[in-house]
Amino acid sequence: PFSSCSRRKMNLKSERRGIHVDQSELLCKKGCGYYGNPAWQGFCSKCWREEYHKARQKQIQEDWELAERLQREEEEAYASSQSTQGAQSLTFSKFEEKKTNEKTRKVTTVKKFFTASSRAGAKKAEIQEAKGPSPSIHRQASIETDRVSKEFIEFIRTYQKPGQDIYKQCKLFLDTMSHKRDLSIEEQSECAQDFYQNVADRLQTRWKVPPEKVEKAMDEVEKYIMTRQYKYVFCPETTDDEKKDLAVQKRIRALHWVTPQMLCVPVSEEIPEVSDMVVKAITDIIEMDSKRVPRDKLACITKCSKHIFNAIKITKNEPASADDFLPTLIYIVLKGNPPRLQSNIQYITRFCNPSRLMTGEDGYYFTNLCCAVAFIEKLDAQSLNLSQEDFDRFMTGQTSPKKQESDSFSPDVCLGVKQMCKSLDLLSQLNERQERIVSEAKKLEKDLIDWTDGITKEVEDIVEKYPLEIKPKSQALAAIDSENVENDKLPPPLQPQVYAG
Question: Residue 18: exposed, middle, or buried by beta-carbon count in 10 A (0-12, 13-18, 19+)?
Answer without folding.
Answer: exposed
